[in-house]
Design a protein that fits this description.
The structure is a homodimer.
Chain A lengths: L21 E2 L9 H7 L11 H16 L6 E4 L3 H12 L5 E5 L3 H12 L3 E5 L10 H11 L3 E5 L1 E2 L4 E2 L5 H7 L3 E5 L11 H4 L3 E3 L13 E5 L1 H9 L10 H7 L15 H17 L1 H22 L2 E2 L11 E5 L6 H12 L1 E2 L1 E2 L9 E4 L7 H22 L1
Parallel strand pairs in A: 1-13, 3-4, 3-5, 5-8, 8-9
Antiparallel strand pairs in A: 2-10, 6-7, 9-10, 11-12, 12-15, 14-15
Helix pairs in contact in A: 1-10, 2-10, 3-4, 11-13, 12-13
């Protein structure tokens, strides 16, 4: 047959050469081999036998990784930012106050999102932009503003810092405040105990320590958060509405209601990530990350790199921020690591631009072998750039 | 090492037997083999060589499938519903009017979403809930309400009907109204010419005639829509903000700005879907769907099924709605098709509950061979249920 003439002709899409680097930036991480396999599993829909079992598996896995008994757990069909927007838009009403102790770009994002919904925001900062907060730093603001929610980032990939959450839930609840936590780059690598720590709304993403694909983001809500959701007068975006999503994901053993079409490859992949974490167990995954990073830090310290985060207990186990010796260029260092060693690390972001390298040893790459490979490459890069350009 | 005791112990996630059916419901469709392969391609991030080329490929492919020269084209990282919420929340401000000529559940969804943003909605309906609209049906409402936007579903999978869009863009523009179109289940199977028809905002999804995975949804905006976005005072959700997404997707050759982490498997898969459509060409894909469905309709008519949509020109090429002969049960029919023939078709949804079977012959399954297999199975099911239960 003859084809009608189209206004827009066929474009040319060429396959190009592409050498995958070892992904040792702040994320995304490389995929577990079993997760790559899971991506190719068959398309499923609500009429497939296994559909609801797969959803139940995922919810059980999410309860485990967050360490919560709450029934209101489910993954959002989107990136980590969709998880962030879900917890903020569901839990804080327009006109209510969200308190943000801020130390990196994810806190800036939470601020940006909140203002879009007419939520009033109060931000507290410390002198060093990457400094973490003590309970004493936070309590005066809770007392003054009596916010509906406090948003805090557990592991911050832009600064390489870890915020302790111990005692923060109780402190927030004393002032009638819900505790909202970003665990995108910490979950599965740093201990996180939702129920024990009194966290009310939390999200993570699968492309970091879970070694899965981005695009599906586990969330969990406490009974306090659930009560707020059930009593609220405001409506979040349809796509992020936890009330409707709880029906789709069968959180309450009621009738399952179609909300949106899930992505079968991402659903299968997340299920496999959770299975792998369950098989390893959280304590062993935490210990593996701790041991690998301790080894990595020891090696890199000997080469002459300084930690941006001075207190060891404030350093995030997944992403380390290093200062380069005086006279070195961050971008040049990152480019050489990629060109010569095919290892992807990243330069600073937000408050750490021009001030740090960001190196991620997490998930499937949290092994002594990878840590040594990255440390060797960093040593070589330091030598090479000394010789050639300084 | 000894593991600390966890509040939530490891759950058991078992692999179960699962026989994938031939996906011939209204969607999701089966995946193209090349798309399954694309899902396993390496993780990429903005620091990978091919990242921006892949994004450029996808944008060129989206311009082609929508037939638009607009630079403001990009995929949303979410299901088709995220595309719907993106065009509504970006293009219609709170307090403005959205006119919805409604004939299926997607129009109900658009109504639900719009009201969440404080958008005023006006709905027009015809006597038969699945009847399509003429320009004469629509013009009086445009004249009366002078809406900021008109939302209409091109192919409606809940009713199996196809809405003609010819002349609708000009009519809308006469009243200062933007034309917003859902093409989730029509694009790639039914002719769609965005620029020629004057469509201002459109979205589709990859799990229908494109035979890709759900979870990534191409959108496109006309220059009129772009102007509205640039002048608007309201802010949509962060995750759906086209102003920010246009920077991430480099729609204007400006600096690329990180917005959210894309899902590498879905990005690779969408790129492959677009490549496949380009290789086949749109006119050939349209002709293949038309020829296959014509053959399928002929065969199924002979068996004794009636079309729910009486006018042939109103029938959607991808999803056909059939009435069962008197005395048959829709659910029983669907269950038998699955149990005996391992073919998934679906019963009615929304206005067609208890009134129709929904059979989808689209994408990789739009072949005479599949059409014959489904028609044979439908004939057998009709005979079997006659014998056993009527």
């Amino acid at each position: 047959m003859s084809s009608p003439k189209l206004l827009v002709p066929e474009p040319v899409i060429q396959d190009r050469q592409f050498t995958k680097p070892l992904m040792c930036g702040p994320g995304p991480c490389d995929l577990l081999p079993s997760v790559i396999e899971a991506l190719t599993k068959p398309v499923i829909s609500p009429l497939c036998d296994e559909y609801h079992e797969v959803m139940a598996d995922i919810r059980a896995g999410i309860q485990y990784i967050f360490q919560t008994r709450s029934p209101l757990v489910l993954p959002i069909s989107g990136s980590g930012h969709s998880g962030m927007e879900t917890i903020i838009s569901n839990l804080i009403a327009p006109g209510e106050i969200l308190l943000i102790p801020a130390r990196g770009i994810w806190d800036d994002r939470a601020y940006n999102m909140a203002t879009r919904y007419g939520i009033r925001t109060e931000v507290i900062k410390k002198a060093a932009p990457w400094a973490t907060f003590t309970l004493e730093d936070i309590e005066p603001a809770l007392k003054e503003f009596r916010p509906a929610g406090l948003f805090i980032t557990h592991g911050d990939s832009s600064t390489g810092s870890l915020q302790s959450l111990k005692g923060l839930g109780d402190l927030c609840h004393k002032y009638g405040t819900l505790l909202l936590v970003d665990t995108v780059v910490s979950l599965g690598a740093e201990p996180f105990l939702m129920d024990e720590w009194g966290v009310d709304g939390v999200y993570t993403s699968s492309q970091k320590a879970l070694s899965g694909p981005a695009g599906i983001s586990p969330t969990a809500f406490s009974s306090r958060a659930e009560e707020k959701i059930n009593k609220r007068k405001h409506e979040p975006p349809f796509y992020f509405d936890i009330k409707l999503l709880a029906q789709q994901w069968n959180c309450y053993d009621k009738i399952r209601v179609y909300h949106h079409t899930l992505s079968p490859p991402l659903v299968w992949a997340l299920r496999r990530c959770l299975q792998e974490m369950i098989n390893e167990t959280l304590p062993k995954a935490w210990a593996r990350h701790a041991a690998t990073t301790a080894h990595f830090h020891k090696r890199v310290s000997k080469i002459g790199f300084q930690f941006l985060i001075k207190k060891p207990e404030d350093r995030l186990v997944t992403v380390t921020t290093f200062e380069l010796p005086r006279g070195y260029d961050y971008k040049q260092f990152v480019d050489y690591m990629r060109a010569k060693h095919n290892i992807m690390i990243m330069a600073g972001l937000g408050p750490t631009v021009g001030k740090a390298l960001r190196v991620g040893i997490m998930g499937v790459n949290a092994t002594i072998e990878v840590a040594d490979r990255v440390a060797d490459a960093m040593a070589d890069t330091l030598r090479a750039l000394t010789k050639s350009s300084l």
